[in-house]
Amino acid sequence: MPYFAKLLLFIFCLVLLVESRKHRRRRWTSQLEVQRASHIYKKNHDVTKTWKGKTEQLLRVDDHDFTMRPAFGGPAIPVGVDVQLESLDSISEVDMDFTMTLYLRHYWRDERLSFPSTTNKSMTFDGRLVKKIWVPDVFFVHSKRSFIHDTTTDNIMLRVFPDGHVLYSMRITVTAMCNMDFSRFPLDSQTCSLELESYAYTDEDLMLYWKNGNESLKTDEKISLSQFLIQKFHTTSRLAFYSSTGWYNRLYINFTLRRHIFFFLLQTYFPATLMVMLSWVSFWIDRRAVPARVSLGITTVLTMSTIITGVNASMPRVSYIKAVDIYLWVSFVFVFLSVLEYAAVNYLTTVQERKERKLRERFPCTCGMPHSKTMMLDGNYSESDANSLAGYTRNQMVPEEEKQEKMVVHLAMSNESNSSRKRGLKGHVGLRIIQNTHAIDKYSRLIFPGTYIFFNLIYWSVFS
Question: Is Cell membrane given among the entry's keywords (predicted)?
Answer without folding.
Answer: yes
